[in-house]
Amino acid sequence: MSFSFNLPVNLLFGAGCINEIGKRVGTFGKKALIVTGWGSTKKTGLLDRVSGLLAAEGLESQVYDQVKPNPTVPQVYEGVKALKDFEADFVLGVGGGSIMDAAKCIAFMGKNDGGLMDYVYGRKVSSEAFPVVLVPTTCGTGSEGNGFAVVTDPETGDKKSLRGTMIVAKLSIIDPELMTTMPRGVLAEVGFDVLCHCMEAFLSAAAIPVSDMYALTGIELVRESLLSLYTGKGGPAEWEKLSWASTLGGMSIGIAGLTAPHALEHPASGLRNLTHGRGLAALTVPVIERSIAAAPARFAEISRRLGGWNEKDCVVQVQELLAGLDLDIGLGSQGVKAEDVDWMAENAFKVSAAGIANNPVKFSLEEIKSIYHSAL
Ligand SMILES: [Zn+2]
């Protein structure tokens, strides 16, 4: 066994821990650009609460609230302008995965010249970024626990991650109480995304013992919390479990990377702007069905953690969860068309080459087209 492991993220976890934000972020400077979305953090009062907690410690803040789901390069540049106009010292992302990823990109481009996609594709490299602080309000992407930031280039439809330790949050404040305001449909989608992160990290060719521990614990925690929260039975203990599973999922993919479900989802949502969790719901089963034979012991382990017996009932376990979450859906009902398949398959090799290479079965272009057709 040999591996390297470096994940320099400072996690603050626990119900009510948001109240410590003012005291915790002073080391990053006096002025925070708060990156958030249009609606929910304002409606729930969280944005005002965070601003107040910062002000109580003598910190100034300004809000950039133009980030939409599947954040784009132009939105990042707008945020960079806000950062520079305000002369902020650090970036504070308050929201779901799109918000956190946008906050990371804004912090990065605030320190770097040229085009963001040049860095995404590795044509340019930099280790410079403003400090990032993250406050997740959905338990899904796990962006608070890794150095990934997914961004979409609207000119090409390419949806791909900026990656590196420079955008790992200097502090992530994970307060399960903040997740409880999520609409039920969003909970289903982000919760399934958590499971995908954990399963894919565990199945990845780049998995190491540390990522396996995170991923398997995450799978168990999803099983113990997601459906009961979705059906209204769960309470604070389940919110805590799902929130921790989300962060563990983010950390596990930060180490081990992703495999084919995510590799195939990004082209679909890059092209048709469907939500990430719904795209994964359509693609995960067709990918698993074609991957089990290459890693039966790993699929058996996943199946057992989900309540099954062996690799043969892994698909059933995932299908039952999807049905329970009202996510037994295809890509077709979300706007993806059969004529999109060729573009998506080719784009998957462009934007997600690592995810395809990490999958237990290394799918060919034709096999990926076949998976997309099955998922329609
Ligand atoms: Zn994901």
Cα-based radius of gyration, to the nearest Å: 19 Å
Shape: globular
Q: Percent of residues in helical segments?
A: 40-55%
Quote the distance from N terminus to C terminus: 41 Å
Strand order of the largest sheet: 1-8-5-4-2-3
At CATH level 2, the architecture of the largest domain is: Up-down Bundle
The CATH topology of the largest domain is given as Dehydroquinate synthase-like, alpha domain
Total helical elements: 16
Tally the structural domains.
Answer: 2
Calculate the mean pLDDT score and round it. Answer: 95
Please summarize the sheet with the most strands: 6 strands, parallel
Oligomerization state of this entry? single chain
Ligand list: zinc ion
CATH class of the largest domain: Mainly Alpha
Following the backbone from N to C, one meets helices and strands in this order, namely: EHEHHEHEHHEEEEHHHHHHHHHH
Strand content: 5-15%
Keywords:
alpha/beta; 16 helices; 2 domains; Dehydroquinate synthase-like, alpha domain; two-stranded antiparallel ribbon; 376 residues; Rossmann fold
Describe this structure in words.
- It is a single chain.
- This protein has 376 residues and is α/β, with parallel strands linked by helices.
- It has two domains: 11-178, Rossmann fold (3-Layer(aba) Sandwich); 184-375, Dehydroquinate synthase-like - alpha domain (Dehydroquinate synthase-like, alpha domain, Up-down Bundle).
- The chain is 51% helix and 12% strand.
- The chain contains 16 helices and eight strands.
- It has helices at 21-24, 40-43, 46-55, 73-86, 97-109, 116-120, 184-203, 209-230, 236-256, 260-272, 276-291, 296-305, 314-324, 341-351, 353-358, 365-375; strands spanning 11-13, 31-37, 60-67, 90-95, 132-136, 148-153, 158-163, 171-174.
- The strands form two sheets. A six-stranded parallel β-sheet has the order 1-8-5-4-2-3, sandwiched between helices.
- It is globular, with a radius of gyration of 19 Å.
- The N and C termini lie far apart (41 Å).
- The model has no long low-confidence stretch (mean pLDDT 95).
- Residues 141, 193, 196-197, 262, 276 line the site of zinc ion.
